[in-house]
Specification:
mainly alpha
Length: 410
């Protein structure tokens, strides 16, 4: 450990004191801690494991096969101008949109380790790619917790509009001396042929037989999933300990005093405090708050955008060993939560009053069998990859048409 990485004396003392205090509190309330850990385990097994496992495994396999490099070359002309990230960032964004936290951070960390993006590009990428998925927002939150499908579309619209705003703002962050990443230096041939060439080079560089690649992907994915489950259980216990220990009430009083001049409904403060720790528990508390529906929805949007300390801990592990800093990501999530809450207020009437389209929605994620949820996750994965490939090829065709028009005019 270098000198600049050595923690300060006060940091060491405070960390030790916090750990001792938490341990004593858990021993003081063992039944509360046990039931909270069971709740976290149930959330992990019923919702998180089948939803994320296919994405974790397939992301590893697609990187090893060179498919991610192929997509990256195709989408480089789109991702660089908009967000200042390499084209492979589109893969992380699509996986994050389809599957939710923390797959976007996992892929971003993996891309950095593979040298397909720089540290600053990775920081921009996790701010953009690590998002909630629509099935969670509509199926779990709107239908399963609130019992009102229509508010799900408001939450989804606010969430994705705000995250793209955050991604665009992050493009102005400094490069810290790094040059923008280019997957291929060859400019010979059209975009599609260069993409296939990059796929071939990436597969040769990896070199693992498919059997070994598959085994490594499954093993690493289960290791990551066990860590995600541990985070959910630990932070579920932490949130419940805060409640019984009086910390939540203390923070509620402080936050209520700060928000009173803004005429914010005080009943949504406790759910927001729970959501600061864990996203699912916070959204469920928001749905049950004694507050008007609009304010409860705003609180849910804020919590989903922020995503919770549990997700932040997962992100920290997914990017461990890289030079991607966690600080910019946390600031981006705070901005995302605030923008999502504001956009929920703006979009509330237009979306809930007039529904442009109504897609079939399940009756809450907790009621879907394990294997059915796994099937839905695989379907979303296939759709995300298909959309990326079609988008890249379409972009290549559009660029070719422009070249033809220019030549005709000349």
């Amino acid at each position: 450990m270098t000198a600049d990485q050595t923690p300060s004396r006060w940091h060491i003392y405070l960390s030790a004191a916090a750990a001792i205090l938490l341990t004593v509190t858990i021993v003081r309330y063992p039944q509360v801690a046990f039931m909270a850990s069971l709740d976290g385990l149930k959330i992990w097994f019923d919702i998180v494991l089948p939803a994320l496992l296919p994405f974790f495994a397939m992301a590893e396999i697609l990187v090893g096969l060179g498919v991610v490099h192929f997509i990256g070359v195709l989408l480089e002309p789109l991702m660089q101008p908009l967000f200042r990230v390499p084209g492979v960032g589109a893969f992380a964004v699509a996986m994050g949109l389809a599957s939710g936290y923390p797959i976007g951070a996992k892929i971003s960390g993996q891309l950095r380790r593979e040298g397909m993006c720089t540290g600053p590009e990775g920081e921009r990428l996790i701010a953009l790619a690590n998002t909630a998925d629509p099935l969670f927002m509509i199926g779990a939150v709107a239908v399963g917790m609130f019992g009102i499908e229509e508010i799900g579309w408001t939450i989804v619209a606010a969430h994705y509009l705000s995250v793209f705003m955050v991604g665009f703002l992050m493009r102005f962050s400094p490069d810290r001396g790094h040059s923008p990443t280019r997957l291929t230096t060859s400019h010979r041939g059209n975009l599609l042929s260069r993409a296939f060439s990059e796929l071939e080079r990436a597969r040769i560089r990896d070199g693992r037989p498919f059997g070994q690649l598959f085994g490594d992907a499954v093993r690493d994915s289960f290791k990551s999933m066990l860590f995600v489950g541990g985070c959910i259980m630990i932070f579920s216990v932490l949130g419940r300990i805060f409640d019984v220990g009086g910390i939540t009430q203390l923070l509620q009083g402080v936050l209520g005093s700060l928000l009173r001049p803004l005429s914010v409904d005080q009943a949504i403060i406790p759910p927001v405090l729970r959501g600061i720790v864990e996203i699912t528990i916070g959204c469920e508390a928001a749905s049950q708050a004694h507050s008007p529906l609009l304010w409860r929805t705003v609180a849910a949007s804020l919590i989903i955008g922020w995503s919770g300390l549990s997700v932040h801990a997962q992100v920290a592990t997914m990017i461990h060993g890289t030079d991607i800093r966690l600080g910019p990501y946390i600031l981006a999530r705070a901005l995302h939560g605030i923008l999502a809450a504001v956009l929920t207020l703006v979009l509330w009437k237009p979306i809930t009053t007039v529904m442009a389209s109504r897609l079939p929605v399940v009756s809450g994620l907790g009621q879907i069998p394990f294997f059915l949820r796994m099937t839905m996750s695989l379907r979303a994965l296939a759709m995300a990859i298909g959309v990326l490939i079609v988008l890249g090829i379409s972009l290549n065709l559009i660029r070719s048409v422009k070249v033809i028009l220019i030549r005709i005019r000349s």
